[in-house]
Amino acid sequence: LAGDRVPRAVLLVLEYNPAALFINLMRYALIDSYTWDQLPPLAWAAAAGWALLCGVAGFVYFWKAEETYGRG
């Protein structure tokens, strides 16, 4: 997707969305020919940030809804 026709902001959104980021990290972990240079910059930090954000958001969501579920 790198090219003159695609705005830089669109490229960043596509590189750092959670699905694409974790797929790229799995490629790096499992495929020998996929090198460190092919990962987006700060890929591991972005993945850790997404994991932390989703974990905290899920915790808060279920903590607030705790009184409404499981009461039959």
- SSE pattern, N- to C-terminal: HHH
Beta-strand portion reads under 5%
SS class: mainly alpha
Rounded radius of gyration (Å): 17 Å
Which residue ranges are poorly predicted, with pLDDT under 50 across at least 5 consecutive positions?
Answer: none
Count of discrete alpha- or pi-helical segments spanning 4 or more residues: 3
Number of domains: 1
Tell me, what's the shape?
elongated
In helices, the fraction of residues equals 55-70%
Output mean pLDDT.
89
Instruction: Please give the number of β-strands.
Output: 0
**N-to-C span:** 51 Å
Largest sheet properties: none
Q: What can you see in these coordinates?
A:
This protein has 72 residues and is mostly helical. The chain has one domain (8-64). 61% of the residues lie in helices and 0% in strands. It contains 3 helices and no strands. It has helices at 8-16, 18-30, 43-64. Helix 2 (18-30) packs across helix 3. It is elongated, with a radius of gyration of 17 Å. It starts with 7 loop residues before the first helix and ends in an 8-residue tail after the last helix. The model has no long low-confidence stretch (mean pLDDT 89).
